[in-house]
Structure formats: structure tokens, C-alpha cells
Amino acid sequence: DSHRKKVSGDYEALDDRLKTLPDQLSYDIMVPFGPLAFMPGKLVHTNEVTVLLGDNWFTKCSAKQAQKIVDHRMKCESLFDLTSVVCSFASLTSTILLFPKKDVNISCLFQNFILFFFSLFRLSDNGDMNGEDTSSSSSEEEKEADATTPVNGLSLKPGWSSLPSSTAPLRQDRKEEEDFEEEEEEANCLPTIYFSHTVEPKKVRINTGKNTTLKFSERKEQKEHSKRKKKNGHNNGHAHHELHKITTPADIYRLFVDVKNGEPIPRKSILKSRSRENSVCSDTSESSAADFEERRMMGRSFSHDEATHSDTSDGITEEDSPTAVLLQPPSRFEAFSGTVIEKDPMPSAVPHLTISPPALPTILERKQEEVAPDVAPPQQAPKRVSKFKAARLQQK
Amino acid sequence: MAEAIQKKLKAEVEKYAQMQKEVSKSMSARQKLETQLTENNIVKEELDLLDSSNTVYKLIGPVLVKQDLDEAKATVAKRLEYINGEIQRYETLLKDMEKKSEQHREVLSSLQQEFQKAQGLAVGKV
Questions:
Q1: Is B83 in CB contact (< 8 Å) with chain A?
Q2: Which domain holds residue B59?
Q3: B47 interface with A at CB cutoff 8 Å
Q4: Residue of chain B nearest A114, judged by CA positions
């Protein structure tokens, strides 16, 4: 019932506007121009009104005829829920030609008006009240009857100026919609890697075939964090620097650098760690072959966890670019485990852990300690084993 | 015995739910048509208010296309007829569905009774 009252109120306001509109030949107004600007202009042909009859039918008529239609509508109003909106605007071409103060491209202006108009139309599909408000405001927009503003009578100027604010959000909504759609379209593109060299590395996305996006730089950041922990801030500035300079896969390799004797020695394989070799060697004396087996299983389970925990791993496996390969330890791990088991089951596990920190935090720390060349391996060995087993027990 | 009846009951309940869904679908479609009907009626009346001096436009996508007033009236009349026909079709459809769902309901209730009897027997046996 309140809805109906609102509707009838709007129609009454519309009626008043139609009465007063032809009083002047033309009005000086500020025309909304996009969502953020106005332009001085004139409202002309004030007697010509284009009226929406419903079901996408329009008719151009005089203000008086429009009034007749409005009256008829008010009578019929009780019959329908979705009120047909009276949308009217003066003839566009004439108004456009009379913008005295700026040289505006006529076609683009025309487009603008059409866009306004039809964006409002879309809203009117959603809700009658909304539609009515907005379309009648669009009609203001187009310099016609105003059903929403409380200002009635001859003072039209305030009416015009208050209008644009209501239309502005509409445009913005549409724009946001468009932006959003653009974003989605972007996600459907071919796999691409964007490296951002900006302050916000999180903008970097890798779009894969299945529309899963991998926040490349986020992972890199995680790695960097873990690495920093390992190396006690050795490469901090260095890594940061590197992070921003990544242009080739080689750059990534540069990041995985062991610091031995104060000199950075590049690794041949990122998935292996030199220091680990040493530590593991010392380990072999203690542990049996069975232990190695177990560790391999652990590593496998890690990779499994990785696959389940991190959604990015899915994205990685499909990525074709070489950089992604480096980030692809989970799938690599399987291939590795066959050869590595004799020497080094651990190193292959390390990258997993660095990448999926939430999985097993205790072990992660331990591994990080191990990889740090500064830490003396033999001291680590006994602790490592126990923690490893503990983690395994946890997993069970 | 009771289990078999229970299964039957479940199956029947599912079927009934399906029927209800379809019924509601056709109901909503019909409502849509009703609104369109009223709208087109209003358009027709308003077109009658006009004379040939006013140009009539039709909105096709983003374009307003000029139309002849008589053509527009004819088009609207045709559309009205079409909508009326659709409404009648949906009416008959709804009636049929109602009948079917009634039948289903009866079947369901009888099954339920059987089930209760069977359960009563089972309890008695135990």
C-alpha cells in the first residue's frame, strides 16, 4: 500500500512537471555529463515529450497529451503491480545543438544520453519503484518531468541540479558492472603471466587454462619469507630487490642462492639444497634405510597435502611457462622421489614446506633451520629426526 | 515388509515433490503472462488516446525505431492475443498437474496407512 502511495505521489509530481514545463521556451540548466561532471546547457523544445507506454513502446507527444496519458495511468494503476514508467525527454538533437559553452562531439553526447536512458531502463526492469525514480530522474536528466524531487512549481533549476546526484550512482553502478565484467573477461584469456614491478606484488596473477589464478607474487613472497627465516635476513634486501627484478626464469634461480663463506653460490637445482646434502649425509649414519623410506612417504604426503591445501598447485600444474615449472614441486616431487631417495629425500620435501606453510608448521621451521648454511648440521640431526617423526605421528 | 513400504513411500514422496515443483513453475510463468497482459492492455488504451500526429517508437535493443501508429496498434493487439493464448495453455497445464498431484497424494496417504499397519504388526510381533 505504501508502495502504491509512492507511485501515485510520483505520478502527481510528474503531472505538475508536465504542467509547468512548457511555461518557458527554454531553460538554462546544468547537464550531467558522465558520473562526475556537469555541463551548462539548455533545455529546449519543452513541449515535446517522449512517453513510454509500456512493453518497449514509445510515443512523442505534446506535454498536454502526456498529461492525458498520466491521468489514464493513474486510473489504471490499481490493475497492475509493475507500474509502467512514464519516461519522457525532450527531443535530443535540438538540445545537443544548443550547448553554447563547449565544443562537444555531438555523437558522443548523444550516446551519453542514450546510455543514461537505457541504464535507467535496466534498473526499471529490476524494480518498479526504482525504475520509476530513476527513469523519472533520467527524464529530468533529459530535462523533463521530475517525479522524484519534492520541488514542484516554477523553480526548475534546483530540481535539475539535485537530479544528477541520483543518476550519478546509477552510472557508477553500471560502470562497476562493466569493470567487473572486464575483469572476468580477463580471467578467461589465454594463460599469461603478469609480473608487476610495483609496490603491491599481489597484483600479479597467473591465469591458467582452467581459470584458476595463481597469485604468483604471493607465493614468491611466501618463499621469500621462509627464506628470510632460514637465512636470518641474509638475503632480505637482496631478495626484495630480486623480487622486483624478475623478468626471466633465470632471475628466479638467482633468488635461490646459497650463501657460503660470505659469497652467494648459485644452485644448480632449486629443489635441492647443498646444505641439506651435508646434513643428510650426517643423518645416514644414524638412520636406517627404513627411515629414508618413511621420509620419502612423508615427502609424498607433503606433496599430497600441498595439492589439497593450496589451490595454487592446481594452477601450477597447468602452467606451461618455465617459471611455473620451478614453482611446481608437488608434481615434480613424484619424479624426483625415485632418484632422490638414495641420497636426499629431504630436499625435495623442503620446497613443499616452504610453499605450504600452514600444513606442518613445526617441520617447516625445522627444515628452514636445516637449509640455513650457518646452522651446524650435526647439532640439528637428532632434533630433526625426532621432529620429523613427531610430525609424521601428527599426520597419522 | 515395512521396509519395502517405506521405500515405496519415499519414492512416492519424491515424485510428489517433483510434481509440486513443476506446478509452481507453471504458476510463476502464468503470473508473468498476467502482468504482460495488463501491460499490453494499457499500452493499447494509450495508443488509442493518441492520434496520428504523434510518432510512435519501438525500443529494439539500444535503438528506438520509428513505427507507424496503426502498425503499432496492430502489433500490440496481436501480442495481446498471443498472451491470452499462452495463458489459456498454462491454465490447462496447471489443471492437469493439479489432478495428477491429487492422485499422488491419495497414493501417498494409502501407502502411509499401510506402512503404519505394517509397523504396528512388527511391533506386535516383537
A1: no
A2: 1-16+23-112
A3: yes
A4: B62
